[in-house]
Amino acid sequence: xxxxxxxxxxxxxxxxxxxxxxxxxxxxxxxxxxxxxxxxxxxxxxxxxxxxxxxxxxxxxxxxxxxxxxxxxxxxxxxxxxxxxxxxxxxxxxxxxxxxxxxxxxxxxxxxxxxxxxxxxxxxxxxxxxxxxxxxxxxxxxxxxxxxxxxxxxxxxxxxxxxxxxxxxxxxxxxxxxxxxxxxxxxxxxxxxxxxxxxxxxxxxxxxxxxxxxxxxxxxxxxxxxxxxxxxxxxxxxxxxxxxxxxxxxxxxxxxxxxxxxxxxxxxxxxxxxxxxxxxxxxxxxxxxxxxxxxxxxxxxxxxxxxxxxxx
Length: 312
Known about the structure:
By secondary structure, this protein is α+β, with helices and mostly antiparallel strands. It contains ten helices and ten strands. Helices cover 34% and strands 12% of the residues.
């Protein structure tokens, strides 16, 4: 999603938290965190499936996880070992951290909420605003005990009336490609790419089934009929939904560039609806909710313009 990447550098610089230190000219390799020369950003992501309490979200647990995450990431900045003196100097000067989320699509599935629905947008706004607000409070608490980040007096925060801030940035939406696999959840805020894929590692091919898909298979439940259809995950490329992206996807489903198998188990031969089944407009719209608060490089920034880069 989002390749080739698109970055609005002027928009990013209008939100630079430390403009006196120079303009932002580049991001980290994945594109979610604009950085000054020699800076680094310590990232972490909250698994949103862990804040579910039945059919509701436990916002108290979410806020507690945010506080823990900010504290943890600030500790990492302190103890990290750097390859050269410049990265240590700049990383500690601004103490940038990027706390984000993963498992958003899985959270929606478990709640029975379609990914491209109004309710999904409302939940994104509710979750991300809580994350932003709790992160700001946690950084202020740390600053009261440990001090503001060293370049605080040269940042935009005093002009906003902020008195305590331990970290120049707090929140970032990273792709979470590897860590979401380790956690067994959908990546970042993206829809499930495919419920079953093949991975080639060191010459070996492995079949990777999404955990929710695997549980349905084990229970003998029809994946397509019981899960994606129930949640409104019908493909916009299917015949009953004209006006989709590409005619080729009307004729054949693809996974990792190869024709998908027709037999997905569970006695249901219809294709599993994954990330390519969503219309770009709906995907784009869901990527737009912005949290409240003055964090210059905060959550979901300018994701209205490009799917996989952020920085408010």
